[in-house]
Amino acid sequence: MPETRLDTARIRAARRVIDPVFLDTPLYRCEALEPGLGCAVSIKLETANPVRSFKGRGTELVASLLADAGRRAVVCASAGNLGQALAWSGRGRGLDVTVVASRFAPAAKLDRIRALDARLELVDGDFDTARERAAAIARHDGVRLVEDSLDIETCEGAATIGLELADAAPSFDTVLIALGGGAMATGVGHVLKALAPGVEVICVQPLGAPAMTYSWRRRHVVTTDSTDTIADGVAGRRPIPAVLDDLLLVADDAVLVRESSIIAGMRMLFDHAGLVVEPSAALGLAAVLEDRPRFAGRHVATIVCGGNVDMDAYLRWVGASPIDRT
Q: Over 70: is that where the pLDDT of 92 sits?
């Protein structure tokens, strides 16, 4: 196993710290999806928990360590899901949580952060602007800055998904992982390369937010000036070098998908699996839709990573057009 920043023994130990409500999420074959995709499909469902995303696995580790060390305040930047998760984990441990987010983030995510008793500061700009502001608050106030994907706890928390997938291998031969900052991709990828090396690890990003995929392909950090995608949860412009180093060791491929395919994937998950998901959660299906011959005859597992979506926007996207089955 190539040396990443992650440690499999620590990942196993993380399961004893993370609230069980986030663990052992459903993994099941969804045969209703298969005619439209042309391959066997299993779903790893990470939305059936109090924050409706996989992020709680990592924030449970962060909050536990802070509380054990006597720290009482923490700040993070978030596209929405990390902020909810940190607010939930921090509230249970008496932490003062500040979340910095773009004012253009989905209102449903922002409202939920407020409802979980976190202090929410909004900035004009995108996630990377929020990240700069969160770092400034941490320096000024002398509090812990949680940096998703850079902080090893966020990666090793997400990596517990990999432990659960590895227990099911070799029933599937490919795992499709939404790629944003890289915590889930590096975490799950690390575990699968260690415990189920026969499984192909494919990361999926929108064409409108391609920075990490470009960086993986060129083997050095590539930044972009802007993003243009409905998949707000993965819309970063500035990859973190240490995370890219890990990703280069564990990802077999990184692909980009169109917005129309993301929407079609969301529609399929609703029509055939009864799931309302945010765009990032449909990236795996979008990858299959765009390259059916590659996956024909294979059994893929896709991680449905989040279900926090603005319903007005969701209905506009999903109700706008039928699925292209060509």
A: yes
